[in-house]
Amino acid sequence: MPWINCAVGMKRLLPIFAGTFLIAPLLAAQVPAAPVARPARFVVVLDAAHGGSDNGASLNGEPEKAFTLALSVRLRSLLAARGIAVVTTREADKDVTADQRAEIANHAAAQACLSLHATESGLGVHLFTSSLAPAQPARMVPWKTAQAAWVARSLELAGVLNSALAHASVPVILGRTGLPGVDSMTCPAVAVEIAPLTAAARTPGHAAGSLDDTDYQAQVATALAAALLEWREGSSQP
Ligand SMILES: [Zn+2]
């Protein structure tokens, strides 16, 4: 797996909910008598995997890091056009550690994070969620396994992505694995690995359904955007 090479996070404690308890009395003294309920801002984090000195896989001679960044840019504009706020982990060809990716996602308080990968192996799109055992939310959670409390939601997100891709006639393989970066994220998070659409599309060139086929790229990106729109609608329901 390409991400096995990623740096493994340091042991740290992440005080997810600590602030809620500590500052609540102060806020209580300051809020208006009739506070207006405002829905939480819906934010998606797009994590273009690899970058800088980490090329990722070689895709017919092209580095995976370039493909993931291009997909992130394409998907960001699709989401922006649909009114979805996007935070990205990188906008250029630079090194970003697994810890930094998780820090960006956690700071954004995202409702979904897609970690984007690509491979010449397999077909269609592979959706990986963390292999951590689901855990109950707690005030303090270990940094390296913070995703444990979100695994159930991440599996739901993978299900929505799976449906949208299937609707777009893209085959999907679902899996679970250890994911440095994702394992430290405190949000629904799925690694999305794009593979060629068909076995024939693996041959070098611009065959339909190959990774460098812009129609195929658009097909996948549009399906992912549709899934995130559906996810937003589901998230806004009481
Ligand atoms: Zn990768």
How do the helices and strands line up, and which of them pair or pack?
Layout lengths: L12 E2 L3 H11 L14 E6 L9 E2 L2 E2 H18 L3 E4 L9 H11 L3 E7 L6 E6 L10 E2 L8 H17 L4 E6 L11 E6 L19 H23 L2
Parallel strand pairs: 2-5, 2-6, 6-10, 7-9
Antiparallel strand pairs: 1-8, 3-4, 7-10
Count of extended strands: 10
Task: Please name the CATH architecture.
Answer: 3-Layer(aba) Sandwich
Q: Tell me the name of the CATH homologous superfamily.
A: Zn-dependent exopeptidases
In whole angstroms, the N-to-C terminal distance is 38 Å
Percentage of residues assigned to helices: 25-40%
Major sheet: arrangement of strands = 5-2-6-10-7-9
The secondary structure category is alpha/beta
Computed Rg: 18 Å
CATH topology-level name: Aminopeptidase
What gross morphology would you assign? globular
Q: Strand count, sense and closure of the main sheet?
A: 6 strands, mixed
Ligands in the model, by name, code or SMILES, are:
zinc ion
